[in-house]
Amino acid sequence: MSVTVASLGFPRIGPRRELKLALERYWSGQSDRGELLAAAAALRAGAWARQKALGVDHVPSNDFSFYDHVLDTSAMVGAIPAIYGWTGGPVDLDTYFAMARGAQGEAHAECGHGCTHKAVDVPAAEMTKWFDTNYHYLVPEFSAGQAFALSSTKVVDEFLEAKAQGIHTRPVLLGPVTFLKLGKGHAGGLHRDALLRAILPVYAEVLKRLAAAGADWVQVDEPCLVLDLAAEEHAALRHAYGTLADAAPGIRLMLATYFGGLSGNLETALGLPVAGLHIDLVRAPEQLGPVLAAARPDLVLSLGVVDGRNVWRADLEAILARLEPVARERDIVLAPSCSLLHTPIDLAQETALDADVRSWLAFAVQKLEELATLARALNEGRGSVAEALAASSAAARARRTSPKIHDAAVAARMAGADTGLARRASPFAARRKVQMEKLGLPAFPTTTIGSFPQTEAVRKARAAHGKGAMTDAAYEAFLREETARTVRWQEEIGLDVLVHGEFERNDMVQYFGEQLSGFAFTKHGWVQSYGSRCVRPPILFGDVSRPRPMTVEWWRYAQGLTERPMKGMLTGPVTILNWSFVRDDVPREHACRQIALAIRDEVVDLERAGARVIQIDEAALREGLPLRRSDWRHYLDWAVECFRIASSGVADATQIHTHMCYSEFNDIIAAIGDMDADVISIETARSRMELLGAFAEYRYPAEIGPGVYDIHSPRVPAVDEMAALLEAARARLAPEQIWVNPDCGLKTRKWPETRAALANMVAAAKQARARA
Ligand code: GLN
Ligand code: ZN
After folding, report:
1. How far apart are CA 302 and CA 257, in angstroms?
2. How far is the CA of 685 from the centre of ligand 2 (A)?
3. Which ipTM score applies to this complex?
4. Please, are residues 740 and 726 in contact by the beta-carbon 8 Å criterion?
5. How do 217-221 and 679-682 pair as beta strands?
6. Where are the domains of the chain?
7. Interval between CA 86 and ligand 2 midpoint (Å)
8. pTM over 0.90
9. What is the rounded distance in angstroms from the CA atom of residue 463 to the CA atom of residue 451?
């Protein structure tokens, strides 16, 4: 039987973020369309040649994108909202980028309510997270009576482009059912049946054109198959694939599922008239048995055995032991669990990483090498790759026992941790009384979320210091001066609870990861977050501990400048976990508990240094929710427990704040309540306080700072506008519950609008007090 190797998608940003650079040059007018297209073509050619050379039999095409593959699909089917002024024909680059980023018009001096920002003529389409990844896609938008027509031949063009380079690719399409499921409609609701009927002819046309161009296999991604699906969605899948199978008899469809198991959708998936099925055996190894038992003998199975969502080297002998019996029975394709879009490109670039840690890792290139090794072992016997297998096993063994990973002190502390650690001494009502006495704050107290503008000067100083061009002492002095100025200014405008401004922090997770043991950082391990934006997630590889206090000195300095309470500012354990690559040798909750204990120590040290108010940000708590509802309870239980471990080491009089910058709480309000923070600040300005309904209904007992202005825009809200929002909040909450603050941190803003907006905010709070 034969074993081949497939790649479901390769990172598109380029080994040195070439795509980011090319896009940003083009957007800023420093390059023209020709240069952008040439850069993109070079990246594609490089990725194809590289994958081919690594031994990949099914090299993907159309996995490249100028911005996002979901947006590419909207362009392919001509789902372009009317506001973009597109009138049919091929979707041009300007329209495409207008949907991705909005199109800016002329500067407006005034736009009705005294704002001074540049008016955006056309806003970008809405962006949201791709399943449970940190990749963001542009949400497809369908109008009433939406019609579809083939409006981009990108998928065919790229197939031909590769063909001209001598590489026969397997084009990738986002499947119609997942595409429609991700979309949103306008008033009147979405008629998904009608949309599906309308969109299938476009997909059919694409498949016909691909067949004419010489394609044989086409990968169709339907990750919706790992979600809980309604009966009509099962029917939609049957209808869609029944139609597509007939459309282009020369094309063999590889239906790709990933990010989880098929579970209840297994029967539907196996009943579809497709030539191949890809399953994720990293997230859901248990589905191999049921799939093998029920799959048609001629169905080509693609087995996702190497983790496409994480950075760990695979244990090849362990994988082989599972695959050998399967490969004796049928032809199989070996693949990463999902597209490699979510991993960094090449470990070879990480020359500065600790050698042991490095020996445990595999990025996109190394993962494809692993697959080629596995395929050879299965086709020609283990002896043909004995050395590679031995190296893999040795690395796995070393990782299991390395003292860099396993810290006896952390293990002992974890073993001794009991539930008492996750409980404050007294319930909120009792804490509130002592906190009020100690803090003596006015009604409607004002504060901010933590960061102040990271100006050009701040970024320059950080870069210079990083490069060694600025001494520690000079950098330190610079940061102190920024901090002092910010503290003084907050006092002047009359804020009640101050912050130091976070000027010393590069990033809210990295800053802590760099000071904790158990984390490693890459130089080039970039992963696309959206468009040209890339992130370099920390790699959590071992037991976590805190060698020394992380924020106490900065806090002490800032508090020394003022009598008013200075907030201690920390990132919470769940957020640190969710924004990192996490070790796969222990359960996520286990790693999170270790981080929680480390943050707890910091909280206790801040209190000991005199902090009366400590904020623990959990910006990423909600996004960690598992894809299937049935898994939510378990996640929320441990996530909440970790927050409580981090926050419960202090006396009743110490006020614990948390912050979450999003506005959907209906699903998780009980968990938010269980976190038992004294104050929570949330995003509300854009939803006009509507989301407070969830808090009111739940009878949330503690204090809430519903953001009164949207920090995502430079617009300065007027006093009346914020006062009206506070009125709206009072309609839903008791006045003594309400804090006054912006939606989130101010690091992306500039000083002039920040000053004006916060001064107005303080004035709005004073109005609210006068009315109390
Ligand atoms: N304290 C952080 C800040 O103000 C919080 C950022 C966030 O929640 N995303 O920047
Ligand atoms: Zn925030």
Report:
1. 10
2. 12
3. 0.99
4. yes
5. unpaired
6. 444-455+486-517+545-771
7. 35
8. yes
9. 18
Relative to the alpha carbon of 746, which ligand is closest?
1
Asked if residue 678 lies in contact with residue 644, where contact means CB atoms within 8 angstroms, the answer is no
What would the two tokens of residue 752 be?
């002039």
Q: How far apart are CA 579 and CA 538, in angstroms?
A: 8
**Which uninterrupted H or E stretch holds 25?**
helix 18-27
Q: Is 657 a catalytic residue?
A: no
CATH class of the region 444-455+486-517+545-771: alpha beta
pLDDT tens for each residue of 725-752: 999 999 999 999 999 999 999 999 999 9
Q: Please write down the long-range contacts of 267-273, taking CB distance under 8 Å and 24 or more positions apart.
A: 267/294, 268/225, 268/229, 268/234, 268/237, 268/238, 269/225, 269/237, 270/294, 270/295, 270/296, 270/299, 271/238, 272/237, 272/238, 272/241, 272/242, 273/241, 273/242, 273/245
pLDDT digits (tens, 9 = 90+) for 491-536: 999 999 999 999 999 999 999 999 999 999 999 999 999 999 999 9
Instruction: Tokens for 296, please give them.
Output: 């048609």
Nearest CA to ligand 1 atom 8: 619
701 burial class (0-12, 13-18, 19+ CB within 10 angstroms)? Answer: middle
534 - beta bridge partners? 528
Ligand whose nearest atom lies closest to the CA of 661: 2
At 94, list the tokens.
Answer: 């300007």
Look at residues 338, 283, 340 and name the one whose alpha carbon lies nearest to residue 525.
340
Using DSSP, state whether 170 is helix, strand or coil. Answer: strand
Nearest CA to ligand 1 atom 3: 745
At what angle are helices 588-609 and 552-559 packed, to 10 degrees?
A: 30
Using alpha carbons only, give the angle 446, 450, 451 rounded to the nearest 5 degrees: 125
Question: Both ends of the chain: CA-CA distance in Å?
Answer: 79
| Residues 446 and 496 sit within 8 Å (Cβ to Cβ) | yes
Find out whether 524 and 16 touch, Cβ atoms under 8 Å.
yes
Q: Is 657 exposed, middle or buried (0-12, 13-18, 19+ CB in 10 A)?
A: buried
CB 412 within 8 A of CB 707: no
Model pLDDT for residues 138-153, shown as the tens digit of each residue: 999 999 889 999 999 9
State which amino acid sits at residue 729.
Answer: A
Contacts of 200 (CB under 8 A, 6+ apart): 176, 239, 240, 243, 244, 247
Whose alpha carbon is nearest atom 10 of ligand 1?
A: 745
pLDDT per residue as tens digits for the range 624-680: 999 999 999 999 999 999 999 999 999 999 999 999 987 788 899 999 999 999 999
Residue 487 phi/psi, 5-degree rounding, is: -65, -45
Closest by Cα among 600, 595, 593 to 614: 600
Alpha-carbon span 397 to 37, nearest angstrom: 46
Helix (H, G, I), strand (E, B) or coil at 300: strand
Q: Name 485's Cβ contacts closer than 8 Å, sequence gap at least 6.
A: none
Helix (H) or strand (E) holding 395: helix 386-401
